[in-house]
Design goal:
Blueprint: E1 2-7, H1 13-24, E2 33-39, E3 42-48, H2 52-78
Antiparallel strand pairs: 1-3, 2-3
Length: 80
């Protein structure tokens, strides 16, 4: 099973990409594989798993990390 998620986060896309890139190589062999790329100012997250539960777990984890990173960046930019 595969899933692709595209996030276009404006000026924060590259920073969120860098934050998630560190997690991409973390071992999760039982759940599946994740690849992250930048394409046309958007973040692409591709997930492959043998099970729907693994796919869901990885998608949830990376979406949560992306959300947390994005919210932190937005809040920090407001204080500048």
């Amino acid at each position: 099973m595969k899933a692709s998620i595209k996030l276009c986060l404006g000026p924060f896309t590259a920073s969120v990409y860098e934050a998630l890139k560190a997690e991409e190589n973390q071992p999760a062999p039982e759940k599946g594989e994740v690849s992250i790329a930048l394409s046309q100012d958007c973040l692409l997250i591709r997930i492959a798993s043998n099970t729907i539960s693994g796919l869901r777990a990885l998608a949830n984890s990376f979406l949560l990390l992306a959300h947390a990173s994005y919210c932190s960046l937005v809040e920090a930019s407001r204080k500048l």
